[in-house]
Amino acid sequence: MTTPPSTTDRTPSNKTVLYCFDCGHESPSDGDWTVRPTTDGDRYDCPECGTTITVRPTETTRGPDQQTTSCYCT
């Protein structure tokens, strides 16, 4: 008995998808988000409605005990 060939030609997707709870926009973390540097890190804003989704620390803003920030990810 042989296994039939796969019919899916999908490439693996990016693990991190950000989601805007205000308007429903979703995109990979390196997608179409508006990214602005702030004193706290890089601020990711929704390109559709302008809602701030997350602020992610950069190498210069990250403290020794700070590894991640919370965000709206799926």
UniProtKB/TrEMBL annotation:
<protein>
    <recommendedName>
        <fullName>DUF8106 domain-containing protein</fullName>
    </recommendedName>
</protein>
<dbReference type="Pfam" id="PF26408">
    <property type="entry name" value="DUF8106"/>
</dbReference>
<feature type="domain" description="DUF8106">
    <location>
        <begin position="15"/>
        <end position="56"/>
    </location>
</feature>
<dbReference type="InterPro" id="IPR058419">
    <property type="entry name" value="DUF8106"/>
</dbReference>
